[in-house]
Amino acid sequence: MALIEIDNLSVTFDAGDRYVHAVQGVSLTVHARESFGLVGESGSGKSTILRAICGLAPISGGAIRIDGKPLQTPRGFDFARRVQMVFQDPYASLHPRHTIDRTLAEPLAIHRIGDTDRRVVQALRDVGLDPSFRFRYPHQLSGGQRQRVAIARALMLEPEILLLDEPTSALDASVQAETLNLLSRLRAERGLTFLMVSHDLAVIDHMCDRILVMQHGRAVEELDRDQLAAGAMKTGYARTLFNASADRMLDG
After folding, report:
1. For residues 147 and 100, is the Cβ–Cβ distance under 8 A?
2. Domains of the chain, with CATH numbers?
3. DSSP of 163-228
4. Residue 234: how many CB atoms within 10 A of its CB?
5. Alpha helices, DSSP H only, in the chain?
6. DSSP character for 106?
7. What strands, in cross-sheet order, belong to the sheet with 210-215?
8. H or E element, residue 6
9. In this structure, are residues 151 and 87 in contact, taking their beta carbons and an 8 Å threshold?
10. What CA–CA distances, in Å, run from 247 to 21, 201, 219, 242?
């Protein structure tokens, strides 16, 4: 049985004068310790799927299950202990007036988990930051350092699943590879399961075992890593994404 099951998921937003069908009948499965990628252009619905899993987007059809069990609405403490999300923009995802120490300690306090000092220090070390960073504020950190803090915060409750929403797209190119390598190491060390969103097939190719290509809210094509490496796409849209990623790598 898959760890994550998404069955015929639809997400519809009420925009006042019209309804926006952001996700339309998408199904996928992610197995334990697998890294699964959602790829597509902006507006393809890939990030909306992550938000639907977290209860942040209105599900209008279908079902989402973790370990075979439908998710409760609203999501509870048990969900937070198992599933955490890392957002795209580290500048927006950290409270500007909270020290890093407070940011990392807050999930522990909410869930009444003790041994805070040791856990905070260890979390910083796990993401390659010196423990002295705990007394800094977000504006005193670089973009890459902020994203490392965001990853550390997501790991404070020792979840099984990380939802990664374009985790490197807001970072300088020189920092992107370091962050992806950090995520790969943490996944291997902790046995994590990833569901990762990106518009860049090169990033997905580096990180993921399987991918689902999305366009206009619909699933277009599923590929495994070998098919992606061989350029064995069946649809024109997936090939267009592949060629665009290859061109960006050549330009770089």
Report:
1. no
2. 4-251 (3.40.50.300)
3. EEESTTTTS-HHHHHHHHHHHHHHHHHHT-EEEEEES-HHHHHHH-SEEEEEETTEEEEEEEHHHH
4. 12
5. 46-53, 77-82, 90-93, 100-110, 116-126, 143-155, 173-190, 201-207, 225-229, 236-251
6. H
7. 83-86, 161-165, 193-198, 35-39, 210-215, 218-224
8. strand 4-14
9. no
10. 31, 11, 24, 9
Instruction: Find all residues with CB under 8 Å of 163, minimum gap 6, and list them.
Output: 50, 53, 54, 83, 84, 85, 86, 195, 196
pLDDT along the chain (252 residues), means of 10: 96 93 98 97 95 96 97 94 92 92 97 97 97 96 95 97 93 89 97 94 88 96 92 92 69 52
What pLDDT shows up at residue 250?
45
Please name which of 154, 156, 148 lies closest in space to residue 195, comparing C-alpha atoms: 154
